[in-house]
Design brief:
The protein is mainly alpha-helical. The protein has a domain of 98 residues. It has 7 helices and no strands. Helix 1 packs antiparallel against helix 2, helix 4 runs antiparallel to helix 6 and helix 4 packs parallel to helix 7. The protein starts with a helix and ends in a 9-residue tail after the last helix.
C-alpha cells in the first residue's frame, strides 16, 4: 500500500480508527513507530514534550536514571544545578584572574625585550612590540584551553537543564548565577587584553 493511499484513508477515518489502520497497514514487514521514550513512559508523561514551563517533580535530568521520585530527590537535583551554576561562574572568574596574571607576566617580559632591542636598533619602538602576538606557551595555553572546555561543557549542561522547562530547575540555575555573581563578580571584571 502506498503512502499516499494510506494518507487518504487516514483523512477519511475517525482518529482512533486511523491509528489502528496505520498500525495494521504496516504489517507488511514494516515496524510501527512508537513515540514513547523510556523516560516519558517511566515518568507518566507519555509522548509529552514540554514547550511551556511545568512544575512536575519527576522531570528527568540528563538521563532517565536521574529522575527525582521524592521531594528530597527533587530538592537535591535543584541544589546540584545551583552548585553547577556557581561552579561555572567561579571558573569564569578564575580564568579572568589568570589571564590578567599571564598578561602582566608577558608585559614584563616584553618590556625587557623592548629595552634590549631598542639598544640594538633605535627604530624598534614599544608600540611595534605590543602589536606582536604572544608565542604559544606550554604553561599558559593548555590551561586556558582546559578552562574554556570546562566553562562551555558546564554551560551546555546548564542549558540542557533549563531546556527541560522545569520551573525548579530553571530557578535553581538563576539562583546559582545570582549568588555566584554576588560572590565572584568583582573577580570576573577588569581589563582583558
Amino acid at each position: 500500500m502506498s503512502f499516499l493511499s494510506l494518507a487518504a484513508r487516514h483523512e477519511s477515518m475517525p482518529t482512533d480508527a486511523a491509528a489502528g489502520a496505520l498500525d495494521s497497514g504496516m504489517g507488511d514487514g514494516h515496524a510501527s513507530m512508537d513515540m514513547t521514550t523510556p523516560a516519558t513512559a517511566a515518568s507518566g508523561h507519555e509522548g509529552m514534550m514540554f514547550m511551556v514551563f511545568q512544575n512536575m517533580m519527576d522531570t528527568p535530568l540528563y538521563a532517565e536514571a536521574w529522575t527525582p521520585r521524592t521531594t528530597a530527590q527533587y530538592a537535591a537535583t535543584c541544589f546540584f544545578l545551583f552548585i553547577l551554576a556557581v561552579f561555572v561562574r567561579a571558573v569564569v572568574a578564575l580564568k579572568v584572574q589568570l589571564e590578567a596574571r599571564w598578561h602582566a607576566a608577558q608585559m614584563s617580559q616584553r618590556l625587557d625585550t623592548v629595552s634590549s632591542k631598542s639598544l640594538e636598533d633605535p627604530r624598534y619602538t614599544r608600540e611595534q612590540h605590543h602589536l606582536a602576538v604572544s608565542p604559544w606557551n606550554l604553561k599558559v595555553d593548555p590551561v586556558r584551553a582546559a578552562l574554556d572546555v570546562v566553562t562551555v561543557g558546564v554551560g551546555y549542561l546548564l542549558m540542557l537543564a533549563v531546556m527541560t522547562m522545569n520551573v525548579g530547575y530553571f530557578l535553581s540555575v538563576l539562583a546559582g548565577v545570582f549568588s555566584s555573581s554576588l560572590a565572584f563578580g568583582r573577580f570576573s571584571t577588569g581589563a582583558q587584553h
